[in-house]
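retry 2 of 3: previous attempt timed out while embedding adenosine-5'-diphosphate. Reduced batch size to 1 and resubmitted. Inputs unchanged:
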Amino acid sequence: MSAITCSHVEKSYGATSVIRDLNLSIEEHEFVVFLGPSGCGKSTLLRMLAGLEDISGGEVSIGGKVVNDLDPGDRGIAMVFQNYALYPHMTIFDNIAFGLRRQKVAKTEIQQRVMAVSSTLGLDPYLGRKPAELSGGQQQRVAIARAMIKTPKVFLFDEPLSNLDAKLRNHMRIEIARLHQSLKTTTVYVTHDQLEAMTLADRIVLLRDGLIEQIGSPAEIYERPANVFVAGFIGTPNMNFIDVTVSHGRGGWTLTGAGADFTLDGGRFNLEGVERAVLGIRPADLKAVGDGHAGNLLQGTADLIEFHGNDALVTFGAGGKEISALVSSRACPVLRGNVRYTFDEESLHLFDAKSGKSLLRR
Ligand SMILES: Nc1ncnc2c1ncn2[C@@H]1O[C@H](COP(=O)(O)OP(=O)(O)O)[C@@H](O)[C@H]1O
Ligand SMILES: [Mg+2]
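retry 2 succeeded.
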C-alpha cells in the first residue's frame, strides 16, 4: 500500500489554477522531494497533504484512507517549516514537549520521549535554554524534534533549510539524510534547491506551473531529462542548448547549428521525421581537443574564465552561441585564447524543437 496517493488533485484560488490534475504515489519509507522554481505550487501541494489547504478537486489518501476532509491533527503527519516558529518564552524542553502536553500524555512518558528525541538530535545540552540562546541550525533541530516526537507516519518539510547559511545548510542536510536512514519515516520534502533534492531524494517530483514535468530518481532525472525544461533546471552549471536542423545522409545523422555540423550515429534517438531539434550538452561533458582533432567541434575564443578551485568554467562564443565548458583548472585555457571542445555521442541530449520533449528512445 502506498503511504500517500494523489489522484487528479486540483487547487485553484478563485479563477487561478495552481495545481492541475496531479497524480502521484509515494511509497512507504520513501523520501520524495518536490522540486521546482519559486511559485510552481510546491508549498500548496504539501499544505494540501498536511490539511492546511482545502483540496479543490481530486483525492488525497494517506495510509490508504482518503483524507480530504480530515483535520491536520488526524492525518498522522508532522510538518517542519522554513520559519521554525518556536515559542520564545518556553525552554527547549517545553517547546519539544508542547504537543504531548496538549494531548495530556503522562508526565513520565513525556520526559522519556523528549529525552529520546533530544539525544537523537544532539539537543541534550540545550534543553534548559530559550530559543534565542540557540543558533539557527540548533533551532531548526528543535523544530524537527518537535515533529519527530509525534512519531508521525509521514514527515512533511517545507524548505526547512532556507533560513540557514550555506555551511549550516550542508550540515543540516546531512543530518536530515541520516535521520531518515535511521527512522525510515515516509518523508515529503519541498525545496527549490536542486542540490538538496539530488542529495536527499529517493525520487524527485519536478514541478512547473502546477504540473509534474518528471518523476524519477536523481540519476534518472539528471541522465534522462524528459524535456528541455527539466534538462535546464537540473545540473550546475546549466546545460548548453543549441538549436539545430536535422538531416539524414549516408554517414548517419547531421545536426547543424552554432556554426558547425555535428555527425551522429543517432541510434539512441528517435530522429525520424524531426526537422528541428535542440541539442543539449552539459559543460562537464565537453572535452578539450588539440588542433589535429576534426569532427563534432565547438570552438571559439574564451571570453570568460571562472575559477572554481578544482575546476574552471570557460565561456566562449561558438557561431554566435554562448557555450560553457567545465574543465580541470590545471588544463584551463588563457583568457581570449582559442578553445576547441568535442563530446561523446553518449553524453548528448536531444529534444524536439517544437514540443521540447526528449528524443531519447525509451
Ligand atoms: N492564498 C493564496 N491566494 C492566491 N494565490 C495563492 C495563494 N497561495 C499561493 N498562491 C499562488 O499559488 C502559486 C503557488 O504558490 P506556492 O505553492 O507557494 O509556490 P512554491 O511553494 O512552489 O514557491 C503562486 O503563484 C502563488 O502566488
Ligand atoms: Mg513554497
